[in-house]
């Protein structure tokens, strides 16, 4: 069975662990660097990206996370997507810089503008319930990035190699198709590494 | 097709705050310190609870100038407090784009009979609760997040501990009940039956429950996480301490790593004086904010 960690510095950790388990993977929370050992993949959950980044810096998580991502799949939702982006609109620096894309934070507005919408996600399915909470979106992607979903002309899910990201929160619904997609990515990568 | 203000969106917003610290601030400068220290949200106020207590009189919604100043200063979510039952204060704050409203006993109640019908609003609400009956009534009215009431502005954790232990104990009791006992329990608690049934099935509240009201040190924050809090509100504890920035950072880290006692020892070294605090037994009954609301 594949073993997938959920970065547990802050945010919706329990929901991701549940969704991964429902998708047939073993799931554990990751609070310390040594807990990255023996994982086949990692989820970076939704939460507040500024708060997570401060804790990443405080515990010198940045380089170990980058090293992990060189060989293992990573899936980021909402704040996790922001942490994975190479460029953040209006900011001079980014975080893990895993996916060649430019993202804008809180791009759909404040909480009162948060919404649910049905999405089509390439390779995943139709009518996926997307829960967008103070969500970012992807403004632009590099040529190696595959756009997986567009909502109102805005890119809301993408994949580059073994990296997957979503601007919304699949972990807040009972629809586990996107998690199943990621678990499949992790299983395939594990075969290649072995 | 595009739906705003759904339960999922309102409760989900609070889910994203889990494991984090929400800090009371009274201006842009404090809000920026809170954000840089790793706060997951700020509560924009005119005065922190300790100063509300000292000032006496009627405590109302903050001056919108302050709320606006804080909204413009940070990228993290901004919360604000409305008086219990004050429909217009809540609507005014909602119209300003505040991300979360606290229908709060820290302010003087505007209605002594009815809480707000929070289902009417697009903006989500957090409410205080001392026991499972109160928690269930607030959820029934549409609260998307709960917090302990504690005793605000005292720097004394004892009431928050009482409320968290009470709620956790009652959840365990309800979970172990047979379904035919549940209606009587709902009557005794004054809790909506359907919500109690859901709590029984899930073994937990359907919304997140933060600790609030008396958190003054990193160890206090870690204690509340140990007792089952999903996160922590710190009111007067940060900006009434000798060194707000250090306190803020230390409380954030202690909340994340609440079982790493060596780390909490490190964090607690040389922090300077915490807020002075008040022994609860010295408070007159009328000064106990937790008695407001029902």
UniProtKB/TrEMBL annotation, chain A:
<protein>
    <recommendedName>
        <fullName>Pyridoxal 5'-phosphate synthase subunit PdxT</fullName>
        <ecNumber>4.3.3.6</ecNumber>
        <ecNumber>3.5.1.2</ecNumber>
    </recommendedName>
</protein>
<dbReference type="Pfam" id="PF01174">
    <property type="entry name" value="SNO"/>
</dbReference>
<feature type="active site" description="Charge relay system">
    <location>
        <position position="171"/>
    </location>
</feature>
<keyword id="KW-0456">Lyase</keyword>
<dbReference type="GO" id="GO:0004359">
    <property type="term" value="F:glutaminase activity"/>
</dbReference>
<comment type="subunit">
    <text>In the presence of PdxS, forms a dodecamer of heterodimers. Only shows activity in the heterodimer.</text>
</comment>
<dbReference type="InterPro" id="IPR029062">
    <property type="entry name" value="Class_I_gatase-like"/>
</dbReference>
<feature type="active site" description="Charge relay system">
    <location>
        <position position="169"/>
    </location>
</feature>
<keyword id="KW-0378">Hydrolase</keyword>
<feature type="binding site">
    <location>
        <begin position="133"/>
        <end position="134"/>
    </location>
    <ligand>
        <name>L-glutamine</name>
    </ligand>
</feature>
<keyword id="KW-0315">Glutamine amidotransferase</keyword>
<dbReference type="InterPro" id="IPR002161">
    <property type="entry name" value="PdxT/SNO"/>
</dbReference>
<keyword id="KW-0663">Pyridoxal phosphate</keyword>
<comment type="function">
    <text>Catalyzes the hydrolysis of glutamine to glutamate and ammonia as part of the biosynthesis of pyridoxal 5'-phosphate. The resulting ammonia molecule is channeled to the active site of PdxS.</text>
</comment>
<dbReference type="InterPro" id="IPR021196">
    <property type="entry name" value="PdxT/SNO_CS"/>
</dbReference>
<feature type="binding site">
    <location>
        <begin position="47"/>
        <end position="49"/>
    </location>
    <ligand>
        <name>L-glutamine</name>
    </ligand>
</feature>
<comment type="similarity">
    <text>Belongs to the glutaminase PdxT/SNO family.</text>
</comment>
<feature type="active site" description="Nucleophile">
    <location>
        <position position="78"/>
    </location>
</feature>
<comment type="pathway">
    <text>Cofactor biosynthesis; pyridoxal 5'-phosphate biosynthesis.</text>
</comment>
<dbReference type="GO" id="GO:0036381">
    <property type="term" value="F:pyridoxal 5'-phosphate synthase (glutamine hydrolysing) activity"/>
</dbReference>
<feature type="binding site">
    <location>
        <position position="105"/>
    </location>
    <ligand>
        <name>L-glutamine</name>
    </ligand>
</feature>
UniProtKB/TrEMBL annotation, chain B:
<comment type="subunit">
    <text>In the presence of PdxT, forms a dodecamer of heterodimers.</text>
</comment>
<protein>
    <recommendedName>
        <fullName>Pyridoxal 5'-phosphate synthase subunit PdxS</fullName>
        <ecNumber>4.3.3.6</ecNumber>
    </recommendedName>
</protein>
<comment type="function">
    <text>Catalyzes the formation of pyridoxal 5'-phosphate from ribose 5-phosphate (RBP), glyceraldehyde 3-phosphate (G3P) and ammonia. The ammonia is provided by the PdxT subunit. Can also use ribulose 5-phosphate and dihydroxyacetone phosphate as substrates, resulting from enzyme-catalyzed isomerization of RBP and G3P, respectively.</text>
</comment>
<feature type="active site" description="Schiff-base intermediate with D-ribose 5-phosphate">
    <location>
        <position position="81"/>
    </location>
</feature>
<keyword id="KW-0704">Schiff base</keyword>
<comment type="pathway">
    <text>Cofactor biosynthesis; pyridoxal 5'-phosphate biosynthesis.</text>
</comment>
<feature type="binding site">
    <location>
        <begin position="235"/>
        <end position="236"/>
    </location>
    <ligand>
        <name>D-ribose 5-phosphate</name>
    </ligand>
</feature>
<feature type="domain" description="PdxS/SNZ N-terminal">
    <location>
        <begin position="7"/>
        <end position="212"/>
    </location>
</feature>
<feature type="binding site">
    <location>
        <position position="165"/>
    </location>
    <ligand>
        <name>D-glyceraldehyde 3-phosphate</name>
    </ligand>
</feature>
<dbReference type="InterPro" id="IPR011060">
    <property type="entry name" value="RibuloseP-bd_barrel"/>
</dbReference>
<dbReference type="Pfam" id="PF01680">
    <property type="entry name" value="SOR_SNZ"/>
</dbReference>
<dbReference type="InterPro" id="IPR013785">
    <property type="entry name" value="Aldolase_TIM"/>
</dbReference>
<dbReference type="GO" id="GO:0016829">
    <property type="term" value="F:lyase activity"/>
</dbReference>
<dbReference type="InterPro" id="IPR001852">
    <property type="entry name" value="PdxS/SNZ"/>
</dbReference>
<feature type="binding site">
    <location>
        <position position="214"/>
    </location>
    <ligand>
        <name>D-ribose 5-phosphate</name>
    </ligand>
</feature>
<keyword id="KW-0663">Pyridoxal phosphate</keyword>
<feature type="binding site">
    <location>
        <position position="153"/>
    </location>
    <ligand>
        <name>D-ribose 5-phosphate</name>
    </ligand>
</feature>
<dbReference type="InterPro" id="IPR033755">
    <property type="entry name" value="PdxS/SNZ_N"/>
</dbReference>
<keyword id="KW-0456">Lyase</keyword>
<feature type="binding site">
    <location>
        <position position="24"/>
    </location>
    <ligand>
        <name>D-ribose 5-phosphate</name>
    </ligand>
</feature>
<comment type="similarity">
    <text>Belongs to the PdxS/SNZ family.</text>
</comment>
């Amino acid at each position: 069975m594949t073993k997938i960690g959920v970065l547990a510095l802050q945010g919706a950790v329990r929901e991701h662990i549940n969704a991964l388990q429902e998708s047939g993977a073993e799931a554990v929370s990751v609070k310390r660097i040594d807990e990255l050992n023996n994982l086949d993949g990692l989820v970076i959950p939704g939460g507040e990206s500024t708060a997570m980044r401060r804790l990443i810096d405080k515990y010198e998580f940045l380089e170990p996370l980058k090293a992990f991502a060189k060989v293992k799949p990573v899936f980021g939702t909402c704040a996790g997507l922001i942490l994975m982006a190479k460029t953040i609109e209006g900011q001079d620096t980014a975080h893990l810089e895993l996916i060649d894309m430019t993202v804008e934070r809180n791009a759909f507005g404040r909480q009162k503008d948060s919404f649910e919408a049905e999405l089509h996600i390439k390779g995943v399915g139709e009518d996926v319930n997307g829960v967008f909470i103070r969500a970012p979106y992807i403004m632009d992607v590099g040529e190696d990035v595959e756009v997986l979903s567009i909502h109102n002309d805005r890119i809301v899910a993408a994949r580059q190699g073994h990296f997957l990201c979503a601007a919304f929160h699949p972990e807040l619904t009972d629809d586990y198709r996107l998690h199943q997609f990621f678990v499949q990515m992790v299983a395939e990568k594990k075969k290649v590494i072995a | 097709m595009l739906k705003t203000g759904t339960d999922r969106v309102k409760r989900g917003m609070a889910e994203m705050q889990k494991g984090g610290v929400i800090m009371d601030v009274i201006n842009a400068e404090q809000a920026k310190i809170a954000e840089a220290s790793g706060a997951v949200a700020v509560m924009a106020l005119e005065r922190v609870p300790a100063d509300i207590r000292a000032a006496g009189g009627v405590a109302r919604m903050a001056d919108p100038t302050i709320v606006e100043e804080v909204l413009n200063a940070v990228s993290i979510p901004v919360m604000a407090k409305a008086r219990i039952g004050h429909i217009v204060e809540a609507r005014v704050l909602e119209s300003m784009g505040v991300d979360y409203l606290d229908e709060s006993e820290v302010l003087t109640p505007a209605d002594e009979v009815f809480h707000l019908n929070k289902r009417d609003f697009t903006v989500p609400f957090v409410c205080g609760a001392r026991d499972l009956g109160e928690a269930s009534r607030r959820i029934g009215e549409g609260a998307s997040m709960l917090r302990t009431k504690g005793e605000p502005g005292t720097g004394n954790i004892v009431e928050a501990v009482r409320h968290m232990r009470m709620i956790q104990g009652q959840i365990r009791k309800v979970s172990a009940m047979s379904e035919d006992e549940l209606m009587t329990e709902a009557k005794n608690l004054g809790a909506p039956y359907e919500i109690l049934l859901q709590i029984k099935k899930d073994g937990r509240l359907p919304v997140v429950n933060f600790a609030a009201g008396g958190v003054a040190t990193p160890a206090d924050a870690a204690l509340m996480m140990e007792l089952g809090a999903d996160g922590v509100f710190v009111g007067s504890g940060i900006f009434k301490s000798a060194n707000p920035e250090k306190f803020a950072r230390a409380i954030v880290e202690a909340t994340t790593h609440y079982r790493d006692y060596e780390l909490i020892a490190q964090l607690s070294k040389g922090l300077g004086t915490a807020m002075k605090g008040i022994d609860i037994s010295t408070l007159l009954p009328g000064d106990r904010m937790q008695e407001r609301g029902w």
